[in-house]
Amino acid sequence: MANPNGSIFKRCGCREPQTRRQLGNSCPKLRRKNGTWSSHHGTWHYRVDLPPAADGRRQEARRSGLPSHDAASAEIKHIQDLLAIPGSDSHGVGQIRTLILDALKAGDPLPDPAVVKERYRRRADLNPQITVADWLHTWLAGRRTIRRSTREGYEITIRMHLAPFIGDIRLDQLTVGHLDDLFDRIDIRNETIRRVRAGKDPELRETFKGQKVTSDAYKQRIRATLRAALNHAIRIGLITFNPASWVELPSGKRPKALLWTTERVARWQATGEIPSPVMVWTPAQTGAFLDHAETRNDRYYELYHLIAHRGLRRGEACGVHWTDLNLDVDEGSLTVRWQITQHGADTVMGAPKSDAGDRQISLDTDTVTVLRHRRSRQNAHRLSHGEHWTDNGLVFTEPNGAPLIPDDVTSHFKELVTAADLPPIRLHDLRHGAATLALAAGADIKTVQELLGHASIAITADTYAHILPELAREVAENVARLIPRQKTAPAIKN
């Protein structure tokens, strides 16, 4: 190399007044009167000779517009570190020379020597056309019509799982084997987390503190995200094969909803055991909860009543407007048109979760009465706050008229359940309870699907159909208790 250490100089864009010739490094403003460089005029440049091309032509790396002499020196050192990676391997030297020149031509940062060294060690392409991580970020940036919550879910999946494990693989070289390795590593991580939780690896406690096991259902979401991104790459001709369509995973079926039967309540009271992530109250338990909230004149009582009776999602209930309601006793109805979703500390008013979520549902007489009471309570708040009242047309608001924060509604629900001494359920399970009440009243699965705004009847059937036998027995026992008997029935003889 003719000039292995490179040269560093300072230039500016000033021109000679008469000839308009650029002064370059001869501009008098580049130096102070004492001969030192001015920090307010001009920028730093460097030039480094690279190994010659295969035909012997001279190759030179140069960059302009750097802010300091130190920045130029650091880039020269960066280039020297890159050129040292292949040693005497002429093919590797040529690859790295091309890598450097391509980055400089594009105005991009020079590649990380540590990354290039690892790629060289693995005999991977040192200058991949596009990596999986690059494509995932490009694909996500182009998804302009998805919801904010959906985008955030994709971003988390890409950042936590896909980019760290397969992000550096060239897109057109991704295989089913790479994805098998990805999910094997997730399984290893899950096992480590379980061992740490069991106290078997205390030295790893801080490393895995607060981390959760990746469930089978979430693995399916990881695969679905990758499959969608790769399908788009196929559509625009970047690849011809989608390995995410062929990797085998556990089914990740949604958890079955279970009824809080007398036996399960007793078990929970004795051991704290909750038999399923999705638990549903019996009609009697739901009634006990609503009685407790009404007796306390709870500020969210009417909202909880609406969810329990008509199965709205949390955000849908928070987003109900007065203009969405018909509170005639004989023709009560609600049109679900809005929902308030929460993103960290922010809340956003938007359309329902899906087209099926935009629906009209009938209101029973009791619910109409409760909502009329809600209107009276809100009018009292409006009068008491005067000019400080926020009029946004919402049914459920804070006392000053401000929209509810969904997370606050959830937190308060948990406190209320505990105070009512009822077996625990999530606020979303109150919506499941509405489906259970509808089934107990004789509604078919299709009717319940439309009530809840499910996009597919399969979701409704998969979640609720197996509750029917338990619910039927609960109802049968309640009916039996209503039949008066004078004496105990005789024992059945075999």
Q: CATH superfamily of the largest domain, please?
A: Intergrase catalytic core
- What structural class do the secondary elements suggest? mainly alpha
What is the strand content? 5-15%
Please outline the major beta sheet: 3 strands, antiparallel
Helix content: 40-55%
Number of strands: 10
CATH fold-level topology of the largest domain: hpI Integrase, Chain A
CATH C-level of the largest domain: Mainly Alpha
| CA-atom Rg in angstroms | 33 Å
Spans of at least 5 consecutive residues whose pLDDT stays below 50 are none
Strands ordered across the widest β-sheet? 1-2-3
Overall body shape: elongated
N-to-C span: 103 Å
- The CATH architecture of the largest domain is Orthogonal Bundle
Tell me the number of helical segments per DSSP (H or I, 4 or more residues long): 17
GO biological process, one term: DNA recombination
InterPro entries: CB, DNA_brk_join_enz, Integrase-like_cat_sf, Integrase_catalytic, Integrase_recombinase_N, Integrase_SAM-like_N, Tyrosine_recombinase_XerCD
Family: Belongs to the 'phage' integrase family.
Keywords: DNA integration, DNA recombination, DNA-binding
Plain-language structure description:
By secondary structure, the chain is mainly alpha-helical. It has three domains: 7-121, no CATH class; 132-245, Tyrosine recombinase, N-terminal domain (DNA polymerase, domain 1, Orthogonal Bundle), CATH 1.10.150.130; 258-482, hpI Integrase, Chain A (Orthogonal Bundle), CATH 1.10.443.10. Helix content is 47%, strand content 9%. The protein contains 17 helices and ten strands. The protein has helices at 69-84, 90-106, 113-121, 132-141, 148-166, 176-197, 216-235, 262-271, 283-295, 301-310, 314-318, 365-385, 406-419, 427-440, 445-452, 457-464, 467-482, and strands spanning 7-11, 43-50, 59-66, 258-259, 279-280, 325-326, 333-336, 339-343, 346-350, 359-362. The strands form four sheets. It has a three-stranded antiparallel sheet. The protein starts with 6 loop residues before the first strand and ends in a 12-residue tail after the last helix.
